[in-house]
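Most newcomers find our protein records easier to grasp once they have seen one. Read left to right, the backbone structure tokens trace the chain's path through space. Nothing more is needed to start thinking about how sequence determines fold. An example says more than a description, so a record of this kind follows:
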Amino acid sequence: MTINKKMLLALLAGTLLQATPSYAKSVPLTPVTSVYVDDHPLQLAAPPLMLNGTTLVPMRQLFEAQGAVLSWNGPSKTVTATKSSTTLTYRIGEVTANLNGKMISLSVPGKIVEGNTMIPLRFVSEALGSTVKWDALTRTIRIGSKKEDFSTTILSGVNLRSKPDSSEASPSLRLIPTGEKVQVIREVNALWLEVRTKDNLTGYISAKPKYSDYSSPALAEQQGDELIAYGEKFLGTPYEFGAATGQTSTFDCSSFVGEVFRHTLSIDLPRASYDQAKEGREVGLDELRKGDLLFFSARGLEIGHVAIYAGDNKLLHTFSKERGVHFDTFDDKWKKRFVTARRMF
């Protein structure tokens, strides 16, 4: 009987060891029992972890609870968080991050555990301007944030939707009128923002610049990518001077630009390139980003041609019956004819 009891206990112990979650094996659990932000408990998607004396917690909840807008690049495992005038960019696994253009060091790197992206709590919070206090008695971390709620102004009435989708599958919760202010919770993608209204509704609005004054470097980069991706669909489309608007079988330089901006970001530009050059704001060649418009002299006119800057010193445009819509290198041939660059978003 004694032998049978010993065997039973051994089997039970083995079963319990096998049942220990692999999450706990990966990194030891921190002695932290709870995390508070502005006296509200932070609901975490996974328990805090301890790594060399540093507490790591899931990324999204930590950023959003402190009023930061989050943008995540999956392929490069890079997060960009924007809060007021602060921009923090960090690539998971590295021991340095970029804070407003300056490189700063982390005591330990962030890591991905069981599908959860874990980042150092103190480092992120203090980078965002928050204070971090440790209550040893209750084993609680308390974060005091400096949120700037409801700083985004609606420029044109926009539907607050239940999903980031404009189809019937995403009904409108209500219309947000011009002039109302909302809090941006996060950038979903190039075309959608998750927001909160003052009457405590949370939903999604269009990120197109006509609807609000919200902007960030991360969103601008995504929208530039979206513009070029749509423009690429027309590679090889025939060139026709004076091509009619409202159709996509032929283009001239300005009708092509007009179609891309109207379809992608709902930005309506004048028909002629010399009028388009009066829109937006001027930028220098050393500050070009994807989606900026470049204007050139042509046909004896001071401004007679327009191209979309596609990044990496490339132009996306059309002017040739032989090539139609195509990419070009922004080389000396074009720089000699360059007049101005304008930013529309």
About this structure: The chain has eight helices and 25 strands.
